[in-house]
Amino acid sequence: MTNSFAVKLGQGGFGVVYKGKLEDGGLVAVKVLNESKGKDGQEFINEVATISKTSHVNVVTLLGFCFEGARRALIYEFMPNGSLEKFIFDENAAESSHRLNWETHYQISLGIARGLEYLHNGCNTRILHFDIKPHNILLDADFVPKISDFGLAKICTRKESVISMLDPRGTVGYIAPEVFSRNFGEVSHKSDVYSYGMMILEMVGGRKNINLRVDNTSEIYFPHWVYKRLELDEELGLKRIRNEEDRVTVRKMIIMSLWCIQTDPSNRPTMSKVIEMLEGSLDSVQVPPKPFLYSPSRSRA
């Protein structure tokens, strides 16, 4: 299927993804898991069990899998545009095709929100993803986003609003505070909302939320920097804003994201509310309280 693993599409902590072709000529992505990753295969089984329960335009489709001893692979639909990550963080592509316009950014944000809303409320069981980040959002030929990588997902009943977890799971920079410490609140579907908000802020800023390479200390932590701009009603100074429509779209995305990253989970919106904010008018969206978040200071040499 992969022609002896000839074309490598990407790599992560889980293993390597290769391009493959089915007998009918259809293209697929084959994710081959590391043998050392979850020796009992629990993460693999978890991903198969979770994603096989889903069917949504904004959730990647699992076409099949291989489970032979230590050899484990997942076969997904092929996404020609790869992951969202390269369209956000590729600094060498300032004016290239890797730079998406704001309407595309907005549609991607809305698509991911719809996919998450489906996982939280549209399935027979509630699915919490726990690893929402640009690397795990794949884009098809038309830049329709698909949520992928369900290795850390947790399935619970629709009625369960709070879940118990023995260990933090996710990627630093996107993990909700309550996943680290219960002092911040209970772990729930609102933990995915936090990760989503952090990711959308990175889309808007075109950079990691924490950037220790910038010269101005106040710009190190993007959520604080952008909140201050909103507070003072200053121009956001972001690139590629060409007209009033772009300006309104970007402000809406920022205000919505700042609601999503509120420290107290109960202050965060549900994904249904997120969709409502994105689709509504800018006037109907209020600026939230400033998120109480750690802003790293530059170490002084």
Automatic annotation (TrEMBL):
Q: Which GO terms describe its cellular component?
A: membrane
- Residue ranges annotated for the Protein kinase domain, each copy included: 3-293
Protein origin, superkingdom: Eukaryota
Zinc-finger is among the record's keywords: no
The listed locations are:
Membrane
Alphabetized GO MF terms: ATP binding; protein serine/threonine kinase activity
Q: Tell me, in one coarse class, where this protein mainly resides.
A: membrane
What's the name of the protein? Protein kinase domain-containing protein
Please give the organism: Ficus carica (Common fig)
